[in-house]
Amino acid sequence: MPVDERTLISRYFTGRQGSRPDVLLGIGDDAAVLRCEPGWDLVVATDSIAEGTHFPAGIPAHAIGHRCLAVNLSDLAAMAAEPLWCSLALSLPKAEPLWVEEFAAGLFALADRSGTALIGGDTVRGPLAATITVQGRVRPGAAVTRAGARIGDGIWVTGHPGDAVAGRLLLDGASQLAATVRDALCQRFLYPEPRLHEGLALGALATAMLDVSDGLHDDIGKLMMASGRGAELDAGLLPVSAELRAAAAGRAIEYALTGGDDYELCFTVPEQATARLQAMAADWPVAITRIGTVVSEPGVRWQYQGRALQVPDSTFRHF
Amino acid sequence: MPVDERTLISRYFTGRQGSRPDVLLGIGDDAAVLRCEPGWDLVVATDSIAEGTHFPAGIPAHAIGHRCLAVNLSDLAAMAAEPLWCSLALSLPKAEPLWVEEFAAGLFALADRSGTALIGGDTVRGPLAATITVQGRVRPGAAVTRAGARIGDGIWVTGHPGDAVAGRLLLDGASQLAATVRDALCQRFLYPEPRLHEGLALGALATAMLDVSDGLHDDIGKLMMASGRGAELDAGLLPVSAELRAAAAGRAIEYALTGGDDYELCFTVPEQATARLQAMAADWPVAITRIGTVVSEPGVRWQYQGRALQVPDSTFRHF
Fold first, then answer.
1. Residue B43's closest chain A neighbor by CA?
2. Between chain A's N and C termini, which has fewer beta carbons within 10 Å?
């Protein structure tokens, strides 16, 4: 059944802008018109995901719809921003209504619970890929950039880096793991959870922050580079999950350091704010773990069981 | 020479955000931070262009860089909005420095003269395609939507619809046209000029407006549908250029009505504002032409030399 772009869009995407009063004109005209409340700055991020690069062929459309928004919301979380609106550019090999319906369901499930309104977009024919530009807001001066880490700050990470890449590898092939372990890891890859609530709260304490997408080691390097500092870290402190240990055995730490696709927050907090951080995080649904300390000497140095650890180049690079 | 994404981006795209004081944090962090001036609403559009669909393979990278921004600025023009910022998602088959340099030159030439700051983006490996999300601003209530056309309003168009599709067809093959004619038409396809100045000025007079991307006939249909009105038009009034007559001969009117890729503005203006419109447009670099009138009966009806004209389905559809 051939369905043209306009029909597809109107069927699954229009009229879904939710009830945000700041969307003055939503999908359907040449552009959307939005109201910026006074006293806020705008925060804007753009991320693309493409089949074969950012996710393997054959994963559910629902997970792809979730993913393209989640990776963008994760950028807002890393700025301590609150989401407002997003635009979607979707490249589809064919206009397949059932696929688009499932994709839209995954996208809107996350959009609705994060309060993000879809305000526009475009569809073209091509290999499966999705680009979202997301817009959020912060109070003036409240955005947490990568550039504020100070000597002596603790280096922290949310969740369990490495789970996602293990899940992705499991999606690709057979495995002798228990179904519960396998499912948990696959879920961590398929449904990355943007740490919006946590990022917003960290705005009050973190001196620098980013989200972990390219691998923890690489991303800490970016944080330190932007801050003009270095990091000393202990791989023995890494919050390696029981599932990752089961799946990756002796390579669990390598997965955690270089896997990527975690979409966890990595951030720095002054030593004296540690107790406040732990109190704040006590009721979060995700654990936080201190894995190192900011130092003056540039570079990212890991040790493990008292010895220097050489971290391999990121194994799973996107471009 | 293999060049990775990060190197490419930093070489050609960072540090190019220009001097807009409302860009508080530009390219290089998880997201950009932007200042919305009080007393303005935000206008946001997203358009993608893909090789083989929106432009043929082999056209200059400079023209592709121009095009991906131009088609988005054209959407802002059609809202009577003023551009502020844009984000770019670029899909590239390979990271080829010379190509990227030329692409960036085309993009920034238009960005700089339109006052649009590039504030972020993403690059992925894939077939050549570019998505831009552009943000502009209007005074509250000043956006011109598609929905305001009133009975008796004149229907107007800027420039010379049909030139662009003729240019595109000429790019594809040999031609016996004079080089000057051929070059002029190819230029019209390769370098669509967003009618920003004209769109902004039309904010004071137009009751409804859009930019012509899918073909004049189709797009007038959208304008009338959104306005709940109909259109009666005279194809004999179409501003067919001498170049298009030379290139398309007996099909010039068909090209003008169904070609698309024009990125001209089509708008409606009350009869009694005609003189003001003409005075305003007298010093524009682009002509404006009245081609019809808004009526109550839905539908878009053309006549030509006193007879009803049947318009064929758009010949050049993108999805």
1. A33
2. N
Q: Count residue pairs from A and B with Cβ separation < 8 A.
A: 206
Instruction: Note the residue count of chain B.
Output: 319
Q: For testing the chain B interface, which of A33, A35, A202, A314 should be mutated: the one with the most B CBs within 10 Å?
A: A33
Q: Across residues A182-186, what is the average pLDDT?
A: 95
Q: Do domains A5-138 and A154-309 have the same CATH topology?
A: no
B49 contacts in chain A (CB < 8 Å):
124
What are the domain boundaries of chain A?
5-138, 154-309
- Provide the pLDDT for residue B94: 86
Count of beta carbons in the 10 Å neighbourhood of residue A279: 9
pLDDT the model gives residue A175: 77
Is the dihedral angle over the CA atoms B133, B135, B140, B144 positive or is it negative?
A: negative
Q: Which residue has the tokens 């054209």?
A: B74
Average pLDDT, chain A: 93
Share of chain A above pLDDT 90, in %: 84
Q: Is the pLDDT of residue A286 over 60?
A: yes
- What is d(CA B150, CA B148) in angstroms, rounded to the nearest whole number? 6
Q: Record the pTM.
A: 0.94
Mean pLDDT of A215-226: 97
Q: Would the CB atoms of B50 and A145 count as touching at under 8 Å?
A: no
Cβ of B34 and A44 within 8 Å? yes
We find that the CATH architecture of domain B5-138 is: 2-Layer Sandwich (3.30)
Contact between chains at B46 and A121 (C-beta distance less than 8 A): yes
Cβ-Cβ contacts under 8 Å, A42 against chain B: 33-36, 42
| Among A30, A95, A131, beta carbon nearest to B75 | A30
pLDDT digits (tens, 9 = 90+) for A121-133: 999 889 999 999 9
What is the average per-residue pLDDT within B195-202? 98
CA dist B256 → A211, A221, B178, B247, B311 (Å): 49, 55, 21, 12, 11
Chain B nearest C-alpha distance from A232 (Å): 22
Mean pLDDT of B33-40: 94
Q: How far is B34 from chain A (nearest CA, A)?
A: 5
